[in-house]
Amino acid sequence: MNKSALLRCVFAFLLFLPVTPNLNAQNKKSSNPESFWHRISVGGNVGFQFGTNTGIDISPKVMVRIVDQFYGGLGFTYEYSRYKNYYYDTINRKYLNFDVNVYGGSIFLRYYLSSLFDNWLGNIFAHTEYEYLTYTRPYVYDPKGSIFDINNNTFSRGKEKIEISSLFVGGGYKLPVTERIFIEILVLYNLNESYNSPYSNPVVRIGAGVGL
Question: What pTM did the predictor assign?
Answer without folding.
Answer: 0.74
